[in-house]
Amino acid sequence: MVDPTDRSRRLLAIAAAVALIGVATLAPVVSAHAVLSETDPQQGGHVEDVPETITLTYTGDGVDEILDVTVTGPDGQEVTGNVSKDGAVATEVFVDVTDAGEGVYVVEWEIQSTDTHVVRGSWFFTVGEAALDPATLLASYEADDRGGGTVDTDPEYGQVLPTGLLYLAVVALLGMPVALVAALRPVADRSDMPRRVVDATVRRLLTGAAVVAAGATGVLLLASVRAAGGTGAAEAALGSRTGRVLLGQVVVAAGAAFVLSARTLRDPADGESKAAGGRAWLAAAALAGLLLAAGQGATSHAASQVGLPVGTAVTLGHLIGVAVWAGGLFAVAVALPAALRRTAPGDRRVAATGVVRRFSALAVAGVTLLVATGLGLTAWLVPSPAAFLRTLHGSVLGVKLSLVVVALGLGARSRYVLLERLDPTTADPRRLLARLPGGDRLPFVGPRRRPDDGPGERSGSDPGPVRAVVGTVRLEAAVVVCVLLVSGLLTATVPGVVASVDDGPGAGNETVPVSAEGVEAELEIVPARRTDRGLAVTDGAPIVARLELRSDDGDPIELESTERVLADHAESGTTLDPELEPMDAPGTYAAVLLFPETGAWDVRLNVWTGEAFLDDSVVVHNEPAGAPDGDGTVQGDSRDGTSPFGILLQSAAVGVGLVGLVATGREGLRIARRGE
Questions:
Q1: Which domain holds residue 604?
Q2: 12 has pLDDT over 80
Q3: At what angle are helices 345-381 and 464-492 packed, to 10 degrees?
Q4: Is residue 631 part of a domain?
């Protein structure tokens, strides 16, 4: 008969899991990772007078700490004034600027976002009524490969190893106590497997995990202080939300390491574990793991993507799922072989069977939670196939998922193949693969074992199946270690939702072929983008029309007279006719166009090369920032809302959650029916 209290606890756990999965799949995407999304003046824009203050606006939870902002004037001198932001965590940074005359102003910035990433970039704007030098403007655009603003999306390589080790330690601290209480100890209490060896082994593992966590969080905290730089770096770093979280993690990890180390030194491996003491050190380890995991959630990509409370909760749920599976796996992989060596040979198979069966139920629950929340996180951070296939974040995520599939395959082999060999009564005659012709010869399924295969299979006299289980569990644990280390690299990369975002207003260059007899010519508009209406540029941003001239033999053509580019706006009757100025490269000329009106401009060459006249034209649409490109996207769009790909992932998360809950319930019923 099922205890009503146990039933209530199970229902409460199921309700909590359903709620967490619902949050992971239904929470809306607010905005992107802390990255520059808007500036005033606009990126690559033109203003008549030098602004007293410029504004940088960031998406997501925004800026935790301003590391550096430098504004350089036309003469190359720094003109940066006071730099400030509103509040501890802000989305806007304000920079006072000293007037240095007309020309190009370059802004270089570096901030630390709330997910611990140091993000840096640059952009420029132009000032004055005087004609802009095309060479200077081209150099600014070429330096800013996004056409008015660059963002450093390289991984924070210094965070990869400490973050990966921290994940490993957190998973161990959270998951090992669960496996010890739910899988290892119950079997030890009902068999000849020595509980003291199990406890001592797990305690040593937890001590090591706490020490690793203390070291990893310490390294990350020092990196945060170093990133602040300058005088008062430590005070600035610890004054930020990220710094306070990291400091709290250091204190928690160091405290857990002290408690567990003291317990391990006081209670030798062969000593008998007292009930109260066993509960105390297990509780200390689990609490430390939970607090560290909460800190990871608070500084995660998701916390910046969908807000601190929801992002932290879902990331915490994901880590708990990983811990129940992977952390428990570590405990089983190390403690089970150590205990079996001190177990009577005839009882080893029974003990191994009990542990594998009970841990399988835990693993199903953990995998359900981690996959469901993982799909929800992916829907937020990698919201499109392009973000998955064309970004470093997506590539690393693909490697991680591949390793997870390998680990799950090994786990399935332990549960559905090796467990059957340990205990033939586990055989399920309804297994579809085994019922197919030749299915029992498949390497994953293995030969069918029946309860009447003889006493030798049931007595434990054959150590082969036990060795196979131990070897497979250890291999699975090794793969999971790789998964967690890869997670460190994944955390250090900029999310796909940011790395794959449209390059912004006016990004990219577009080339227009020019036809003339005896001349090879090419007209390039910098910056511009191609839409279904044709070429488009952003209103308020000067563009460069660059012309390259070559003879049929490939030799550069030098112009002997002043030639021009004509730009006509039919609606207003406005005409521009800037001169083509020679550039450093032979045969290359350029002119700057700043359209005063929005709408369609007919840009036409008016060039005599000495042998041919070039009068090719192209229509360029001068559009306000934020105008639709005609393909459903918007300039500067941060992709608010949910994409079809994201909806697919969210639907899959719900499906996995429901199927996993059913599977977890079935595993629990099987254990209950066997009286284990």
A1: 510-623
A2: no
A3: 20
A4: no
